[in-house]
Automatic annotation (TrEMBL):
UniProt: Ca(2+) 2 binding residues: T193, D237, D244
Signal sequence segment: 1-23
UniProt source species: Durio zibethinus (Durian)
Family per similarity comment: Belongs to the peroxidase family. Classical plant (class III) peroxidase subfamily.
One Pfam family from the record: peroxidase
Cystine crosslinks: C33-C113, C66-C71, C120-C312, C199-C224
GO terms under cellular component: extracellular region
Group of enzyme by EC: oxidoreductase
Annotated cofactor note: Binds 2 calcium ions per subunit.
Catalytic residues of the enzyme: H64
Plant heme peroxidase family profile domain span: 23-316
Cofactor: Ca(2+); heme b
Name of this protein: Peroxidase
Function: Removal of H(2)O(2), oxidation of toxic reductants, biosynthesis and degradation of lignin, suberization, auxin catabolism, response to environmental stresses such as wounding, pathogen attack and oxidative stress. These functions might be dependent on each isozyme/isoform in each plant tissue.
Length: 317
């Protein structure tokens, strides 16, 4: 197995390749505002220290942003007569969180940079990385230079954000539509090694699935009744505040919480990746970093496209 230093060198090389392909750069703010990234890190670390669950919430915001027409911070926009907010899409409504932390980051970077030069889309990308690091996971160089959208699309959010009820063929197709392959699917799903899920997203599995450990099902049923308690939380793996490989260990034991989790290890094409990640945590770290860099390059707005929002929740007029 390669050393950790070698793995991070490979991640750096992948970042450099992606920079060429998409005109984004890890050094985008080096001259514009060299204190931007340290400021984001400071706010994220404080937020995660205050509430460990926030790390997963910030990572999820970046994921849900990129899957809806690219990484453009469209999911941060509040509803208006002209904005069909993605916050009310099925995958986000009453579950997406961390918006106030993004507001704090935006205010802090605008102050230290002397104005609005850092996009909300870049803030989401950097906050996701810093959240993973704060919870003990890998680091990577975030490619920067995205700009913010002036629209949102709730209909597209309902169609494109993967559902917790999807089987493997649906998941593979969903990721393929974003230019992501099966390895990206499994690696990025490993983000579920941190955080919690609401009862409504896994009730069907714990009461009806056949590919589930019965003891695990009974444990989850204790806090997720057949009716009611839709927002009751359960951890996605046994160590929800630590970025490790317990998520994949759970899948091998048929203890995946969501239908879409266990679908990755159910006698099909992705089983081998799950097994690799249980045996070699650094392989998961490397693939996760590689895949999230790739995801962060989904249709970014650059140059004169879009805008740099003054407030992440609303379009500049």
């Amino acid at each position: 197995m390669a050393s950790r230093a070698h793995i991070f060198l490979q991640i750096f090389f992948l970042s450099a390749l992606a920079t060429t392909a998409f005109s984004l750069s890890p050094d985008y703010y080096a001259n514009i505002c060299p204190e931007a990234l340290p400021t984001i890190k400071k706010v994220v670390e404080a937020a995660v220290y205050k509430e460990r669950r926030m790390g997963a919430s910030l990572l999820r915001l970046h994921f849900h942003d990129c899957f809806v027409n690219g990484c453009d911070a469209s999911n941060l926009l509040d509803p208006t007569p002209t904005i069909d907010s993605e916050k009310t899409a099925v995958a986000n409504n009453n579950s997406a969180r961390g918006f106030e932390v993004i507001d704090q980051i935006k205010a802090a970077v605008d102050e230290v940079c002397g104005g609005p030069v850092v996009s909300c889309a870049d803030i989401l990308a950097v906050a996701a990385r810093d959240s993973v690091v704060a919870l003990g996971g890998p680091s990577w160089e975030v490619l920067l230079g995205r700009r913010d959208s002036t629209t949102a699309n709730r209909t597209l959010a309902n169609l494109d954000i993967p559902s917790p009820f999807m089987d493997l063929p649906a998941l593979i197709n969903n990721f393929k539509n974003q230019g992501l392959n099966e390895k990206d699917l499994v690696a990025l799903s490993g983000g579920h090694t941190i955080g919690f899920a609401q009862c409504r997203t896994f009730r069907q599995r714990i009461y009806n699935a056949s590919n589930i450990d019965p003891v695990f099902a009974e444990e989850r049923q204790a806090t997720c009744p057949r009716t009611g308690g839709d927002t009751n939380l359960s951890p996605l793996d046994p160590t929800p505040a630590l970025f490790d490989t317990a998520y994949f260990n759970n899948l091998v034991k048929q203890r995946g919480l969501l239908i879409s989790d266990q679908a990755l290890f159910n006698g099909s094409s992705t089983d081998y990746l799950v097994k690799i990640y249980t045996l070699y945590p650094e392989a998961f770290w490397y693939d996760f970093a590689r895949s999230i860099i790739k995801m962060g390059n989904i249709k970014p707005l650059t140059g004169n496209q879009g805008q740099i929002r003054l407030n992440c929740r609303m379009v500049n007029y």
